[in-house]
Amino acid sequence: MRSRNGSYYFSFSICSVVIFLFSSTLLNATDYLISYRYVVKDAALYNETLDISESMKECSGKPTKSLILHSYKNNDLQKIISINSTKFIDFIGTLGLHVKHTESTINTINKSTTILTLKTTCFKVDFNDNFVKISPLK
Amino acid sequence: MSKLIISGASIGLIAAIFTGCAAYGEGPSMSSYMSDTKGLSEISREAPVPQPAPQVATPICDMTSVNPVLSNECNMHISVIGQGVSPVNTVSPAQAYALAKRAAVADGYRLIAEKVRGVRVDGDDLIKNMMVTRSTIRTSVQAMIRNANVAETTFKEGLCEVEMEVIISRSQFAQ
């Protein structure tokens, strides 16, 4: 349907399509909320939890030191991190982990529990063809 | 004629949106990739940037004294060896190694926290008829550790040992 000047709707629709295509192909940085926790009981790994969720609203802050992981043409962050789990866990160790350790010795029987936690942190994730760039926001 | 002018204007608007969006995007937009992959000729054409003065690295404190104190003049280097064992029900030696290393790293973090923050110790002894019937010792530590590095890892007979180190400076602590 044409407007009175003949091409307003046409040019508007072209512009909106261009903006949509541009934002979906080039500016595909997304914010993700990531938390990590693992429990060691009596010197053996007991439980490990890595929670990844796409942020429902844009996070504030500036990206700091970043990590680049191979994505193998995958767009699922959870899968990418599970493939490169060692590298990612070493990286979040540099961001800061909260350590909570309790140990009890009852009648010479020793039990210990250590919990390492990365509090929920917002990461900016840039997906590319062969790699992803993950940067925590501060 | 007017249609031609309008279509020309719309193409110009699209081009403006492209360039504007590319300049606005903070992520790896096309313009940023283009600027990252500069040719040698472009680099040589840039004006010489004044180099900042080289920073003098803060020396590491002498840790041989009985009670080393963190001062402004030097940083403190803390090194620990964490130990961890693999669980019984592992399916492969590689999994056993990975899990034991994870446990050893947690132990290393705990040892660093104990050195930096100290340990809270609670003890109870229950004595009945002049005999100790129950003896309990509880210890706990809580801390936040940042920038700890794994320097060396060894794995022998199910026991993994990791050497972890962290360098702390006085400026990292709130004054």
How is this structure best described in words?
- The complex is a heterodimer of chains A (138) and B (175).
- Chain A has 138 residues and is α+β, with helices and mostly antiparallel strands.
- Chain A contains three helices and six strands; from the N terminus they run αβββααβββ.
- In chain A, strand 5 and strand 6 form a beta hairpin.
- The mean pLDDT of chain A is 84.
- By secondary structure, chain B is α+β, with helices and mostly antiparallel strands.
- Helices cover 35% and strands 30% of the residues of chain B.
- Chain B has four helices and five strands.
- Chain B has a three-stranded antiparallel sheet. A two-stranded antiparallel sheet of chain B has the order 2-3.
- In chain B, a hairpin with a 2-residue loop joins strand 2 and strand 3.
- The longest helix of chain B is centred in the middle third of the chain and has 25 residues.
- The interface between A and B is large, with 46 and 51 residues.
